[in-house]
Design goal:
six-stranded antiparallel β-sheet, globular, 363 residues, mainly beta, YerB-like fold
Amino acid sequence: MSKKRLVPLLLLLGLLPACSGGEDLPEETATPTPTPVVEVTAEPSPTPYDGPVSPLSGLPIGEEWLNRRPVAIMLNNLKEALPQMGQSQADIIYEVPAEGGITRMLAVYQSVEGVGKIGSIRSARPYYLELALGHDTIFIHAGGSEDAYTRISQWGVAALDGVRGPYLSNQENGNLMWRDPERKKSYSLEHTVVTTGEAIIQRFAGYTNLRQEHKEGYVYEMDFTEDGTPSGGFSADHLQVPFSHYKTGEFQYDPQSGLYLIEEYGEAYIDGDTGEQVGVTNVVVLKTSIRNTGDSLGHMTVDLSSGGTGYFACGGQAIDLLWSKDYPDGQLFYTDLEGDPITFGTGRTYVCIVPLDSQVSIS
């Protein structure tokens, strides 16, 4: 067979490629689907907060509050007077025994902006005045022992009193304190005095004779860090702190929030304004001499000037501490057993002041 006849036959059989103009045609292939280009952008790292912080907690605060005198408010802690209100937003809560084994609290706020109802507000004792003076506070109370009234005058305490002063009314009518109408329905009258952060701000603006800024050169003694867990400490997931036969405080560490959740009288310690259990970053226990004065009302003396020992707990760990305070208006100063100042975790602090023989349990 001639080559001329062989080539068409091979083309028909598909054994040779067809030609056009003497050039081979490319084999037919499927057109690939283009792969979409996905731009991956990294999540921006959160910008660290570098604004003003409260000198009493290390938490963010408005610039205008930095040099303001804190507000210290006396809080009732009788079981039948609970729940307290507004205490969860205090930078520092001090709890100290009073007559009959009861305790009262002093709630200290560097700023009251955004704080709701606060109360119920009760009467003063001299050692609460010492704590308030240590922070150069404006002190809000409703009544007081005769000794407390004497000290207010002697020590020059900036005290706004709802009993012997013009700061209490029966209704919320622009005054600093008033008797809460809802509490009046079910509480004894002495358990009904309240205020709010807004009322404090508004009323203070009109108190032109009241110094509202710290004196020049005032220095805070507390320092804060994001993680205040003490090194070289011991386990402190739970603290049981007896104040008296009447009151024991319980502090349970919650790793998820990094807070110590508080219980008292066998129940969660609730802020009645928010409905939430109170939690704090730092727990401090101070031991000191607490004695009955022997008067007919069973008033107590609490030694806040001799110094002593105690404990500091943060992040589920605790260490022993030493404390000191100049009489009557010095700040409380805390160190470890080597004398190095304690650095607190950023957040709120609860200070328990208990008798020397209090059987504090930490585990």
